[in-house]
């Protein structure tokens, strides 16, 4: 059997997330229907991880096994005509038997976008957090530095997670500015349920001056549900890249 | 009766255009429902002009008369909570009785965006023409210069128009480049049905080397339907600004 890896980009706005659900309308449903068609047999995919409803991907990775003999370059070409315009296949590659999109992943990078300009914006409402307030980047970066290293992130894991361990290693966590957009980049060996959006919400409180860096550090060392927080809006989150060996 | 002018921005993707239609789902329907609610009486709006299904606006202007006494700043505030996220009110202003969004307009500026990078793009598919080919900007600008002045644009008016005269005065028509995006800005005292999208389609043929500037000039002097052309995709077009006295 062939083992194929696809790199995928999608706008999450019109979907209920990556993973199949009883109510349908997921990225997985669309991809499996497409791949079943091009492979001539039922295809089930594995993704590097779930993304929630409304979350986007610039470089999601999926893998699947098939007896179908469509060449990889043809998958790309057919995808352009068969997939909806908000889902794209960026690359297709034959992999060794043992490769698995989720279990072989070594690290993942997410980007979160926050717009600081006030007022509604029909062109950005589903693509960033329309915060509309100025942020203190220096303070946010001071707090973000505390995330680096191997730590228990249980405080930033929403309930509903099925992770056994809540320990993750963060390699990079940094805010930068591009005009009115504040951009958060975080690279880690894995992420807990809602972890990036919960972190962004708390770090924005620091950036707004509603919370000190010391208070954020305390949160980081709290048990699950020790403090109240709503995850930052889904539309600001982008799965940028999944790294393998 | 009060006469109120609103400046509006919208993402056209999810609508059947500006003007009300029997099948619904237009920007006008949404705005009239909203204004009827805030004014406490049935409101009918006039727009500076129609935009087709999928066409966007950065600065559409509408006007309406009402006996309702809601202050203009409150319209803006209420709009943020009552309008869908893809339609925004940018400003609201009390006008003299004789002001009319359409009949008082002196000129309008449209922008058209063309992406030259190849491949699908889930984040741009409804916001530009995903052309995916390089364009010769110098040639396109040479052709675009031929549009300047008062001319009969009947050759670039799609059938279905209700305009009496097909003569318009173009003040500016210029291509510029921003990374992989080619941007066309056109300012005129008015536009015919599909005029910008038909012009862009023909000018892109020049940019691709499929048509010479001399051939474009011949097209410009043709009678209606003298040459075949499909309008450039709706999603690339933005009504940028409407100018009054």
Low-pLDDT stretches of chain A? none
Largest interchain contact = A-B, 21 and 21 residues
H and E order of chain A: EHEEHEEEHEEEHHE
Helix content of chain A: 10-25%
Averaged pLDDT of chain A, please?
A: 94
Separation of the first and last Cα atoms of chain A: 22 Å
Number of strands of chain A: 10
Shape of chain A: globular
Major beta sheet summary of chain A: 10 strands, mixed
Question: Structural class of the secondary structure composition of chain A?
Answer: alpha+beta
Indicate the proportion of strand residues of chain A.
25-35%
Quaternary state, please? homodimer
Evaluate the radius of gyration of chain A. 19 Å
Number of discrete helical segments of chain A:
5
Task: Describe this structure as you would to a colleague.
The structure is a homodimer of 245-residue chains. The model of chain A has no long low-confidence stretch (mean pLDDT 94). Chain A is α+β, with helices and mostly antiparallel strands. In chain A, strands 1, 2, 3, 4, 5, 6, 7, 8, 9 and 10 form a 10-stranded mixed beta sheet that branches. Chain A contains 5 helices and 10 strands. In chain A, β2 and β3 form a beta hairpin.
